[in-house]
Amino acid sequence: MTAEKPTVLRSEKAGWIHFAVVAGFLLIVAVGWNLAMERLGYWLRKEPVPWPAGVKVNEKTFQNQSFPKYIGPYRLAEGGDLKHADDMLSTLKIGSTLDDQRYPERKSNWYINRIYEDTREPENSPFRFWILDVVFYTGGEVTVPHVPDICVQAGGATPTGRNTLNVEVPSAKDPWRKTPFVALSYERMYQGNLQELVQYYLFSVNGLPETDRDWVRVRLADPTWRYVYYSKIQFFPRGNVSSVKIADEKAAEFLQQVLPAIFTQLPSAEDIQRLYK
Fold it and tell me: What is the rounded CA–CA span in Å between residue 79 and residue 74?
């Protein structure tokens, strides 16, 4: 009497058929769910936002090339247009294959990393040179991987304070006319000397200011938002400061000049609204 091998084969075949049916059903449910949510005005998959007209980004390095070199008393320092190495760009999630695909539609990520010189300050002033770092992320793939609070400690510094720097920018529109920046102070040993340093930063989320990284993530995940971008605006004097109070005053001067120029490179809240029409 022979074994009934066909029964085993039928069982295996039936298992694969069952798996295919379940997988197909789940796919249909997923697609149907997304369509249903979109009809209700909820968007689970976020779409990128194009850069404003006039913004220029290098196709290979993804550096912003349209940001002005001269802003009031500040000028781009000699050799001050800093290019990130490939490993740093990978860490920042800029210049990926997805960025290559989105670049022709002006929807890639980009960055600015520059040193500006305050021509009014003496050569030995800690406020002669300022580092400006701006990153632009669009779409829902990157959700705020880096903030100075964490990065300065990772670099071996010890935080000494965290406050809010409120800056009056008369030429800006609400809600940017009075802009709150996070103001960090920290200490670091460098070549046997204790340095006191400061950094300032703020996020723009779909054209709206935000100081808290977690709230940036909440806003980016808002199901009623179909198009999303955020930008981190970060800057600091390159020198060792002797007074945080004076540093804050100098930072406010820098922002009043530089922030309006940054607005020209970022989509406004009104630009986002126009995408829905």
Answer: 15
Contacts of 38 (CB under 8 A, 6+ apart): none
**Residues 6+ away with beta carbon under 8 Å from 208:** 175, 219, 269
Enumerate residues 6+ apart whose C-beta is below 8 A from 232. 133, 134, 135, 144, 146, 147, 201, 202, 203
> pLDDT digits over 184-194, tens only?
999 888 787 88
Please choose, from the candidates 175, 172, 194, 193, the residue with its C-alpha nearest in 3D space to the C-alpha of residue 185.
194
What pTM was estimated for this model as a whole? 0.84
State pLDDT tens for residues 177-229: 998 999 999 988 878 788 899 999 999 999 999 999 999 999 999 999 999 99
Count CB neighbours of 106 within 10 A: 17
Peptide bond into 52 cis (omega under 30): no
CB 127 within 8 A of CB 247: yes
